[in-house]
Amino acid sequence: MKNTKAAAFAAILTCTTLLLAGCSSSTSGASGSSGTSGAVVVGSDLSFPPYDSMNSSTNKATGFDPAIVRAIAAQSGLNVTFKDTRFEQLIPSLKSGNIDLIASALYITKDRATQVDFIPYITTGSSIVIRTGSAALTSISDLCGKSVAAIKGGNQSADLRGAASTQCTAAGKKAIDVHEFPTDPEGTQALISGQVDAQISDAAVAAQLNSSTKNKVKVSSTSLLYPIPVGFAVKKGNTALKNKITQGLEKIKKNGQYKTLLKKYNLGAVDQAQVDKVLK
User: Fold this and answer.
1) Quick one: DSSP state of residue 200?
2) Cβ atoms of 188 and 129 closer than 8 Å
3) What gap in Å lies between CA 147 and CA 77, rounded to an integer?
4) Distance separating alpha carbons of residues 16 and 190, to the nearest angstrom
5) Digit-coded pLDDT (tens) for 23-78
6) pTM of the full structure
7) Could you tell me where in the chain the CATH 3.40.190.10 domains are found?
């Protein structure tokens, strides 16, 4: 009888403690956010302008991704904070619960879709960047036998080492020598210093390199390479947060904020047919 009473008292005490502490057994992610909570930790590689960077004067995340996430958050009742995370660590950080949402120009691929749940929001592609004054490299086939900088963890590296290099060797040319760098700016510096012959980068990023490097580099390709959809990502099964982000995105499409941001950053609207093709 005493044991029964003691057990009952212990259960009541435990429940009371949990209530006072505001605990819940259904926590998810860095902030305990399942989409119903207002606090969301956003993982972004803040070394990737114009998508993501750190404003040194305000010490705040700036660029396209922070702008669109804040617009969505305002429509969805979410309180977002940004956590600077190197690109190759974004998905591992999401899986481990260190962040709740990835917003960092993350290309949608079939492999990544097995690891995260995507919310498509724009379409982009890649451009070839060369040192100003170098011979033009306008297409992927022009990169055969060349040393090319690419961001570590990005799908451009896999594309260049895979299908592109296979086409090179099939044509009797040397494969592409891919040099990976933790950040895109490091790849650009390698290009400027002559460590590599070219850099392949996201088209929106590449477009601003000429001015940001004081004309030391320029875009050499003449068309969008590897067009691909880009998505926000949440942890597999976090449908509540996914729904909130999706609903917020639809709201800013209707109120015109989405179109304004696309125009400002020279980006394209998401193409669902393209998403379906990638994930097929």
Assistant:
1) E
2) yes
3) 47
4) 59
5) 333 333 454 455 555 899 999 999 999 999 999 999 999 999 999 999 999 999 99
6) 0.73
7) 39-124+227-272, 126-226
Q: What are phi and psi of 15, to 5 degrees?
A: -60, -40
CATH of domain 126-226: 3.40.190.10
Residues 6+ apart with CB under 8 A from 110: 278, 279, 280
Instruction: With beta carbons less than 8 A apart as the criterion, state whether 216 and 131 touch.
Output: yes
| 276 DSSP assignment | H
Query: What span, in angstroms and rounded, lies between the C-alpha atoms of 256 and 42?
Result: 23
Angstrom distance (rounded) from CA 165 to CA 162 = 6
Q: Which CATH superfamily is domain 39-124+227-272 in?
A: Periplasmic binding protein-like II (3.40.190.10)
Distance (Å, rounded) from C-alpha 48 to C-alpha 258?
20
Report the candidate in 122, 117, 137 with the shortest Cα–Cα distance to residue 244.
117
pLDDT digits (tens, 9 = 90+) for 208-249: 999 999 999 999 998 889 888 999 999 999 999 999 999 999
pLDDT score recorded for residue 140: 96
User: Residue 11 carries which DSSP code?
Assistant: H
Question: Alpha-carbon dihedral of residues 247, 253, 256, 262, nearest 10 degrees?
Answer: 120
CA atoms within a 13 Å half-sphere pointing along the CA-CB vector of 39: 8
Query: Which residues 6+ apart lie within 8 Å of 212 measured at CB?
Result: 49
Query: Residue 44 CA to chain centroid, in angstroms?
Result: 7
Exposure letters 195-232 (e unless 16+ CB within 10 A, then b): ebbbbbbbbbbbbebeeebeebbbbbbeeebbebbbbb
Q: What whole-number distance in Å separates Cα of residue 277 and Cα of residue 108?
A: 11
